[in-house]
Amino acid sequence: LSITAWLMLTMYLVEQQLYPRMRAASLLALMGAVAVLLAVFFPGTSLANGTSVWLPLHLTLGVASYGLFAAAVVHAGLMTRAERRIRRASEDGTGVPLLTLERIMFHCVNAGFVLLTATLLVGWLFGEVLYGHPWRFDHKTVFSLLAWVVFAVLLVGRARFGWRGLHATRMVYAGAVMLLLGYAGSRFVLEVLLGHGA
C-alpha cells in the first residue's frame, strides 16, 4: 500500500508540472498518510530465501497496476467533483478542464489494464513456481479477474461506444473496489485476523 501511495504521489508531482492548477494534493496526502500508517502497523512478511525470480516481477507488476488504477480513481473523483460544479453553474474547483481529467484517467486505466493483464498471466503461467502450487481460484484471484473484466468492458465500451463521464467513472470505481477486495481484503484477513503472511 505504501508503494502504491508513493506511485500516486509521484504521478501527481509530474502532473502538477504539466497542469499547475491541478488540485488533488490534500486527497493524495491523506491517502498516502493512511497507506504509510497501515504499512507501519501491518508490515507483512519478507520474501523467503530461494524465492523464484518470477515472484518479484509478479509483485512489481501488481503494485504498478494498483498504483495506476489508484491514480485513475483520483482523477475519476476530480471528474465527479468538476461535473457537479458544472451542473451547479459554479466555478470548477479543480482548475483543470474536464476533458483533460478524463483523458488522464483513461491513460491510467489503459496502462493499469496492461500491467494487470501481465500480472495475471505471470501468476497463471508460473503459479507453481511462484507459490509452490498451481494457480487456484481463491477469492483474491476471483476478485482480480472480476476487476480485469470490469476494466476490459470499460475500455471496449470507450473504444466502440464512446463511454465517458459518469458511466466511465462508476466503472472505474467498481473495478477499483474489486481490486481492493481482492488484495487488501485478503491481506487484512491473513495478517491481522489470522496473524500470518499471504
Short overview:
The chain is mainly alpha-helical and 198 residues long. It has helices at residues 2-18, 25-41, 54-87, 98-125, 127-131, 139-161, 165-193. The chain is built from 7 helices and no strands.
Uncertain spans: none
| C-alpha Rg (nearest Å) | 18 Å
Note the main sheet: none
Compute the number of strand runs. Answer: 0
Give the averaged pLDDT, no decimals. 77
Topology:
Blueprint: H1 2-18, H2 25-41, H3 54-87, H4 98-125, H5 127-131, H6 139-161, H7 165-193
Helix pairs in contact: 1-2, 1-3, 3-4, 3-7, 4-6, 6-7
Describe the fold and architecture.
By secondary structure, the protein is mainly alpha-helical. It has one domain (2-23, 52-193). Helix content is 77%, strand content 0%. The protein contains seven helices and no strands. The protein has helices spanning 2-18, 25-41, 54-87, 98-125, 127-131, 139-161, 165-193.
Characteristic key phrases:
198 residues; mainly alpha; 7 helices; 0% strand; globular
